[in-house]
């Protein structure tokens, strides 16, 4: 069995979509975060195929070999979520288990909020509900400090220079500092034309996410949280449960933001 890649047209763009496992099995959509891609997250979850599950991992817009619109407004959470909504519909998927990490978790939260009819179960990995993140980012000085790198990303052009320098040396250094175990495997995707700018545009479009509609998540929800996350306070996981009708948190000790690479066995066990 090998990973298959297909191009799918959604929401006016074309996405690269990786698939693994039996296509007649229950579908599991994996949404990667910054600065990963479909290959990184599908490699982490490949063992799900042994349970006869159909694993689907798109390069979200701006990433990998998917399209990379230039305007910042094209990376608002509403547009990113519309991509995944149309992908599920165009692929004819039913009873989807949706798994999202980091920014992919934000998309998963909002998609499940907006279209609970498309999602059977929600699993979010080290990504708070978008309302909880907004509240802590704006009002919690500890989280503001943890998220201070975002202010660098908002500066035009400078972060591209820094992150591209010396074959992504600075980029890889900071990921190593956060205990990412597979940094070298990501740089081929970063080399795609316009990739670094497009990835940063997810952050630059945050201003469009300030007034998103929100209601309680109606499907069963599991938050998996590596306790040693250097970017996000674990208290936000518990706070996120206030937006879930049927939610629980699984904290994983001795793991951080990249828990899906560090302790994948425990996550698959929870799934």
From TrEMBL:
All residue ranges annotated as the AB hydrolase-1 domain in the record: 26-262
MF terms in GO: hydrolase activity
Keywords on record: Hydrolase
Source taxon at top rank: Bacteria
Gene3D superfamilies assigned to the protein according to its UniProt record, in alphabetical order: alpha/beta hydrolase
Keyword Ion transport (UniProt): no
Pfam families xrefs: Abhydrolase_1 (PF00561)
Database matches in InterPro entries: AB_hydrolase_1, AB_hydrolase_fold, Epox_hydrolase-like
Name by which UniProt lists this protein: Alpha/beta hydrolase
Organism this protein belongs to: Peredibacter starrii
């Amino acid at each position: 069995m090998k990973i298959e890649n297909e191009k799918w047209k959604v929401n006016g763009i074309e996405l690269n979509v990786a698939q693994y496992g039996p296509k007649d099995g229950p579908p599991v959509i994996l949404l990667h975060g910054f600065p990963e891609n479909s290959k990184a997250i599908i490699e982490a979850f490949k063992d799900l195929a042994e349970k006869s599950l159909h694993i689907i991992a798109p390069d979200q817009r701006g990433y990998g070999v998917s399209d990379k619109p230039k305007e910042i407004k094209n990376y608002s959470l509403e547009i990113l979520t519309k991509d995944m909504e149309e992908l599920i519909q165009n692929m004819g998927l039913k009873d989807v288990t949706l798994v999202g990490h980091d920014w992919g978790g934000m998309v998963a939260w909002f998609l499940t909020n907006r279209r609970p009819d498309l999602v059977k179960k929600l699993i979010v990995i080290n990504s708070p509900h978008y309302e909880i993140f907004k509240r802590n980012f704006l009002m919690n000085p500890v989280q503001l400090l943890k998220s201070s790198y975002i202010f660098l990303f908002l500066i035009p052009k400078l972060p591209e220079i820094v992150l591209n320098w010396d074959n992504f040396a600075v980029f890889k250094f900071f990921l190593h500092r956060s205990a990412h175990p597979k940094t070298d495997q990501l740089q081929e995707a970063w080399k795609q034309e316009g990739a670094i700018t497009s990835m940063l545009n997810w952050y630059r479009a945050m201003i469009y996410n300030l007034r998103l509609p929100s209601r309680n998540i109606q499907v069963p929800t599991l938050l998996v949280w590596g306790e040693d996350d250097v970017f996000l306070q674990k208290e936000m996981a518990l706070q996120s449960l206030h937006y879930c009708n049927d939610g629980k948190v699984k904290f994983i000790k001795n793991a951080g933001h990249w828990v899906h690479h560090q302790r994948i066995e425990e996550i698959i066990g929870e799934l």
